[in-house]
Automatic annotation (TrEMBL):
This is Uncharacterized protein. One of its GO terms (cellular component) is membrane. Keywords: ATP-binding, Chloroplast, Membrane, Nucleotide-binding, Plastid, Repeat, Signal, Transmembrane, Transmembrane helix, Transport. Residues 292-515, 972-1198 form the ABC transporter domain. Residues 1-17 form the signal peptide. Belongs to the ABC transporter superfamily. ABCC family. Conjugate transporter (TC 3.A.1.208) subfamily. It is a multi-pass membrane protein. It is found in: Membrane. Pfam families: ABC_membrane, ABC_tran. Residues 1-244, 659-935 form the ABC transmembrane type-1 domain. PROSITE patterns: ABC_TM1F, ABC_TRANSPORTER_1, ABC_TRANSPORTER_2. PANTHER family: ATP-BINDING CASSETTE SUB-FAMILY C (PTHR24223), ATP-BINDING CASSETTE TRANSPORTER SUBFAMILY C (PTHR24223:SF401). One of its GO terms (molecular function) is ATP hydrolysis activity.
Amino acid sequence: MFLVITIFIAVTMQSIAQNNLFSLSQRLSMKVRTIISMAVHDKLLSMNLALSNKVINEGKLLNLISNDTQKLVDAVGNFHFAWFSIFEILVVSAFIIMEARASGVPGVVFVLLCQPIPIVMSSGVRKFRMEAIQYTDERVRMLGDLIAGIKTIKFNGWTDPFLQMIGRIRDNELYWIRRSLCMKFLILVLKDGIVPIASMLIFCTSAKIHGHLSASMSFSVLALLGILSRVLNFAPTGIQYAGEALAAAERLQCFLRVSNYCEDFTNDKVSTHADTSVSISKGNFSWNVPECKEKNLLSTIDTDSFKPILKDINLTVRRGQIVGITGAIGSGKSSLLLSLIGETNCLEGACMVERPVAYAPQQPWIFNDTIRNNILFGSKYDPPYYEKVKTACCLDYDIEHFSASDDTEIGDRGVNLSGGQKARISLARACFSSAQLILLDDPFAALDPKTVSHLSQYMLRGILQGRTVVLTTQNYRVLDCCDKVFMMDGGTLQQLPRNNQVLKLFWNVKSDNDKEEDREIIDFALKHENFPNQSLTTVVDSQISISLPLTLSINEHKDAQNLNISVPHENSKILDSSVWKEDDTQKNDFDSFFNVNSQDLSYIGGFENSEMPTHSNISGQCVNEDNGISTTKEDRIEGLVAWKTLKRYFKAGRYSNFLLVFGTFICTQAARVILTYWLAVWVDNVFHFQLGFYAGIYACIIAGATLFSASRAYVYSYTTCVAANTLHREMTNGIFYSPLLFFQQNFSGRVLNRLSKDQASIDELLPITAQNMLENIVGCMGSIFMITALVPWFLLTLPPFISVLFFFQRRYTAVSRELKRLDGISRSPISAHFLEALQGLTSIRAYKMEENMNKRLANLLDRNNSAVILFQHVSRWLSFRLDLAAAFCVTVTAFLVVMLHDHIAPGIAGVILVQSLQLTGLLQYGVRMAADTENHFTSVERICAYTDLQGERPLRTAISLISDNWPTEGRISFINLTMAYREDLPPVLNEVSFEVRPKEKIGLMGRTGSGKSSLVLALFRLVDNRACNGSILIDGIDIKDVGINDLRQRLSIVPQDPILFNQTIRMNLDPFERHTDTELVEALKAVQLFNKIRKWDKPLDAVAGGDGIEFSVGERQLLCLARAILRRSKILVMDEATSAIDVQTEDSIQNVLFSELKECTVLSIAHRSRTVRHCDRFLLVTHKGRVIEIDITNALQMS
């Protein structure tokens, strides 16, 4: 009885020590995760743009902070099994030798000799892991690119080819993941074989020496071997975690040890020149990074690519000056500004720049927060000055119409803002900062003339008066406001004379004939259109302005004129009959369209091209009207993991495969139970046979168990990989076939978290945890069957024991499951933060906001750690109670054996004790693994939520509805079209009806929020819900009956935000591979881009954004134009397609377009009249989504 009590005390003490070990290890692992995340973040923010472009991308960054960091975290908690197992193996081996004497030596030696094998196999796991992570990086990076460019993907109907490309990457990734899983399971198979073989060696030796087997010795050794089996089960796990952590540490170390080549420009460097803000002397700058040879992150760069992009730059800017820089696309304007803030590498010369710097990039960086926080960007809120900045940057009108004013939340990357709104918020951020040096990279490209004029007067010559401004622009009127004007040409900088005539000649200002033509067009409208009580003026220069005034009425401007106009209805066709009625209510729907300044040609109002209408830019698309929240709250299912989730997983891996898996598990455990029973038969010599008979049967059972175990490893790894791949494919299909609204309501970090972290959990963690659970559950069933068959009294103790176990398990699961879900939800903002930091690297570094970003990350990590630490404490709560229950079960079983020793043979008594010890361990660990498996199934649950997203329909067109070359004419008919972005929002287009004839060139105009881009979205069916009524016919066929892929692949668009994917030039132009190399080259030549890439051996296979090829925004627009030329669609939409292109290049491109695409119907949205002056007609879209047509040809004839 004393020994029975001693067993209980020993098991309890073991539990206390073990749980304290786990608790301390888990706390340490959480600290390790936080430290690594902060270190990666610090390193990221310390890199200049030239270095970060070579070193990191979204996929690698997410893998570093999620998968690689998690490997180190897991190693901290599990590596102890590796080193402690050596000590435990030695102690257990000593006990075995003490019990079996000389007979135990062969078995112990065999076990020790086999120990290096798992270590060698673990190195294989590490190798496979390194191979898999390369493809994981590539897959996540590409998924991030697709999410960032989702509008381009949908506009062009490219979903299928890019999903196929992701599928190919995924197949390669899964190949190595499967090999890694197989190797892990084979290590477990090795464990399943080592211990039985060692026992056979010991028993055969003992039987040979003593002539028989002693029951006490045999089952004592078997119990010790059972302990050794558990040790050998944990030891490979620790070794595997250590190996994977080593591979992850190499990748993290490689990233963290990259040298920072950027020079820190500080105030001290210009302190000797009190009146100088910028001083560059003979500066040569390059995008390339010297000695980029770090494995897995940096590639060796060709020596030819070290040529400087900026050569012999000499620039001096005095404090308080406004300096303008202009030049052709790709000449180096943006590179010069980035060089001023240290984002390129200075190869030669001296560069001194005043700090701090405010920087507005050409593509504005907008982060997921409120409008106010985007403007303040860490600065102290000063209400009076804040209001001045809003007014100066033309934001008053927009903010007033947002649902929560400036507390309205902006979506991920500013997806629910127009291009002009993003540009003006970026300008406001620069203006509000306390920096004395302001760098503006072509912020006026997305703005209309009146807004540009307002910014020139109230921003450049207003609130920025006295501060130093260096800006790049293609706008002649902005250059006219500058104290100095420089021209970039091929990476060199030269100053232009400060003479208006010289500037006009350089800038190719329109000829008098062109101006007169514009004047005739506008004069005709002014004379003949009847818009009561409206102030209309014209701008007769290089641009036409059509807009509502934002903050300043025309009468308030010293040179403005009010002109009333009327147009006879016979010459101005009213497209929407519901627009024009004689009552004042309808007439007041219209605001000023044309604004003329007769003398100094300065612009007043706030018209710009809009991605989305103002009243739906934020509130209309994805913002709660009441609280101004842009993104939806992440979905979180509560309660038990539903059976349908398990069913989806089984279905994904195929039911037949899982049945085979369960069969191999049962057969493996049956062989183990039979092995233990056969030992009892051997000990009692039931059949009175010789040693060879018992040993032979024993060896055959071992061989069968090992064979079943190996089969289980292969089938199980195959099945889990099939399930993981199926779920990944369904999730990516669900995501990328979802409507555009889904991406506006879910920031990219949230989506990528499921595509990376949750997918990694299904790929690797779930299979291992579920395998341990199944093995333990089947083992429990085998032990219970064995003990019950030998001692029926054991059934009396089993029900209360199992009830207690599952009571604790349900209590634990109810809490841990929700904590695991909270962990997943609170982890998404961390991923989003890293992605935002990567996207806004230049702005963060320019504004010196690294510390603020670090604090923000620390807060996000603390929030996530709260869920993690609670989960760990709950796990320890369960573990200790399971250990106590197990100790009680072992004590009761031992007590029964003692009480019934007269009725139980020694061999049977040994079997019972060994099986009870195994049963308690199996039940305890099995219940824990069952709970952990359910927790990992929350990842399946989260992925299934995305597989069930409602997609766009139909994907394919009904047979025979359209011909292979549809549309053949290019006729577009809008019939009573009403469109709303959501069913619960007001319409942005109201019963619009008009027709575009074949081959017509239409200029689409209107103020912000009028619905120009809404028409385009409706044409491409990017917005399609039950609130959308009416029809759009193309060549007489309703587009609702045409599959979305067929529709979008038959139309072409050049978007305002040109997106290039980090793929080859060929893939960016022709993802379906339908065109020959000759056709691709001709398209590139037509847009004057081929010379940029021709120096490569295979220019079409060069990677955009890689291989040393960096495209400016204007060059990206040209590449998008090349896509349109290649497709030769009958219908082309150009949405500010040349806004970032200089006028000389634009003129030549326009000539090419009108010659190459003369057979096409073209809808062109533009601000510059030179872009639309060749159009046949104008469509004017009012601020309430109504459309008016002015026939320019008839207008000119009439005038």
